[in-house]
């Protein structure tokens, strides 16, 4: 069993598509990603029929048999459905990202206003107290020296305190989570699946292991471990997971800049990996069209 550090490193950079063997293409075999999608869409037999017709040059002729045309049309239709599922998922993520950026902007405005006020107060007290201290130095009375030092200490202490308050500002400001549950929910909680999970090719793709890989984890599980590695996601912190997935608005949970920023990072990463399904669909599309 790999050490914890090795496991985190192994999931730091992941891909959800099978490794491509160049020798398969040289032998005229179908790529692993295209083969998987053909099985996932339940069109493997029709794809093989089309590929055989392609090898015989039938697809490039003027008269393509009706059975081949029907098979290719059905395959293209299923590819279109699967591709639209990717578009739909990405559109939902874009909407969730827009909500998150709006929340981040509101928190950042309040943070920046506070930081500017603290910086202004810091410069102001340094200038005023510094002027008082220096003006007392114009006198030749040695009795004022201890007082001047006390004033200097007060100024330096106040400046240090205001600087420390600046560091705490990002964690102080919060806002109530009002957005509906986002696309991270089914990844954090396997019991919360999309409404169309039983019919979705994309969800089926995410809930199957990557073909040819040693790991038996599903793509959904790989993504969760990936997020644990690169963003420090803690699956044992249920409250934090609910905040990231905005899945418990009824509990009056609040979010700060750190939570919103992490949510944005996870949603962007999820969007990127969902689009890997598009690459597999493209490879299968090449197999059933007349192109080389």
Task: Write the SSE topology.
Blueprint: H1 4-10, H2 22-26, H3 32-40, H4 44-55, H5 66-136, H6 145-172, E1 175-176, H7 185-188, H8 201-206, H9 219-231, H10 238-245, E2 254-255, H11 257-274, H12 276-288
Antiparallel strand pairs: 1-2
Helix pairs in contact: 3-12, 4-5, 5-6, 5-11, 5-12, 10-11
Structural class of the secondary structure composition? mainly alpha
How would you characterize the largest beta sheet?
2 strands, antiparallel
- The gyration radius over C-alpha positions equals 30 Å
Distance between the termini: 44 Å
Reading the helices and strands in chain order gives HHHHHHEHHHHEHH
What would you call the shape?
A: elongated
Count of DSSP helices?
A: 12
Output the strand order for the largest sheet.
1-2
Percent of residues in beta strands: under 5%
| Helicity level | 55-70%
Please give the number of β-strands: 2
Low-pLDDT parts are none
Q: Let me know the average pLDDT.
A: 82
In short:
66% of the residues lie in helices and 1% in strands.
Structure description:
With 292 residues, the protein is mostly helical. 66% of the residues lie in helices and 1% in strands. It has twelve helices and two strands, in the order ααααααβααααβαα. The protein has helices spanning 4-10, 22-26, 32-40, 44-55, 66-136, 145-172, 185-188, 201-206, 219-231, 238-245, 257-274, 276-288, and strands spanning 175-176, 254-255. Strands 1-2 form a two-stranded antiparallel ribbon. Helix 5 (66-136) packs antiparallel against helix 6 (145-172). It starts with a helix and ends with a helix. The model has no long low-confidence stretch (mean pLDDT 82).
């Amino acid at each position: 069993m790999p050490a914890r550090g090795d496991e985190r490193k192994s999931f730091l950079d992941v891909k959800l598509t099978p490794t491509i063997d160049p020798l398969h293409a040289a032998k005229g075999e179908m790529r692993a990603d295209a083969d998987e999608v053909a099985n996932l869409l339940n069109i493997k037999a029709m794809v093989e029929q089309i590929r055989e017709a392609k090898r015989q040059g039938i697809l490039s002729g003027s008269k393509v048999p009706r059975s081949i045309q029907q098979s290719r049309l059905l395959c293209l239709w299923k590819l279109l459905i699967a591709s639209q599922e990717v578009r739909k998922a990405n559109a939902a993520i874009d909407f969730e990202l827009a909500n998150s950026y709006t929340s981040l902007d509101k928190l950042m405005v309040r943070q920046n206003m506070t930081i500017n006020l603290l910086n202004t107060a810091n410069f102001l007290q340094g200038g005023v107290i510094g002027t008082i201290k220096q003006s007392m130095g114009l006198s030749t009375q040695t009795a004022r020296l201890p007082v001047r030092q006390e004033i200097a200490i007060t100024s330096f202490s106040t400046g240090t305190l205001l600087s420390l308050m600046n560091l705490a500002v990002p964690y102080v400001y919060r806002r109530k989570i009002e957005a509906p549950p986002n696309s991270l929910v089914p990844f954090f909680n396997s019991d919360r699946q999309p409404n169309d999970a039983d019919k979705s090719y994309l969800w089926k793709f995410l809930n199957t292991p990557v073909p040819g890989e040693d790991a038996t984890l599903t793509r959904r599980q790989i993504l969760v471990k990936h997020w644990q590695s690169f963003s420090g996601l803690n699956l044992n912190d249920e409250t934090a997971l609910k905040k990231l997935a905005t899945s418990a608005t009824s509990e009056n949970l609040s979010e700060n800049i750190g939570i919103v920023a992490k949510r944005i990072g996870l949603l962007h990463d999820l969007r990127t990996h969902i689009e890997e399904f598009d690459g597999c669909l493209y490879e299968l599309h090449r197999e059933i069209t007349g192109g080389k």
